[in-house]
Amino acid sequence: MTFLLAASLLVGCTVAQNPDQPPEQTFRPPPSRPSLEVVPPEVMDGSDEFVSEGPGRGFHHFGAVPLVEGISWVAMNCRDDATATTVHLSIETVGEFGIACETNEVTQNLNQLNLDSEAVGQAQFTLDAPDSVEWYVSFQVPEGTEFP
User: Fold this and answer.
1) Cα→Cα distances 82→46, 104, 105, 106, 144, Å
2) CA distances from 77 to 10, 65, 81, 101, 109 (A)
3) Average pLDDT over the chain, rounded to an integer
4) Structural domains in the chain plus CATH codes
5) Phi, psi of 97, rounded to the nearest 5 degrees
6) pLDDT value, residue 4
7) Residue 148 has pLDDT above 90, yes or no
8) For residue 97, is pLDDT > 60?
């Protein structure tokens, strides 16, 4: 019985081939995965980038940012190497944004600030995140904004 099994396996593996042609090879690329690289956020139309920092990890103080009348943007791309977590972007006098950073994917987040003339000035801008979070942050002001 062993001899017959071995013979049938040998016959099953035999392939008739033309000796003048190379063997056919098929290549199947591995399934595509989304990129895990944390890249800079996109600059919104009608905006200029005032702060662009990253890639970085953990807590960061970006310093003072201008608060100007009109629409400004706070954008962040992030990924957590350990476990999904919420990080906090804080703009003094304006507020705080809780942003969920996922594992195995880059999270993109965009927050719009529509400031009136009473909010004009400067404010400290910080990010509170664990070291397991890789991030890229952008603070954008209306295009053509002039600073004193």
Assistant:
1) 36, 9, 12, 13, 40
2) 56, 19, 14, 8, 6
3) 84
4) 47-142 (2.60.120.260)
5) -115, 125
6) 41
7) no
8) yes
Distances (CA, A) of 23 to 11, 19, 28, 79: 18, 9, 16, 45
Contact at 8 Å (CB) between 77 and 56?
A: no
Residue 132, φ and ψ in degrees, nearest 5: -75, -10
In this prediction the pTM is 0.75
Mean pLDDT (whole number) for 81-95: 94
Does residue 95 have a pLDDT over 50?
yes
Report which of 91, 99, 44 is spatially closest to residue 65, judged by C-alpha positions: 91
Helix (H) or strand (E) holding 76: strand 70-80
Give the DSSP H or E segment for 118.
none
CA distance 113 to 108: 17
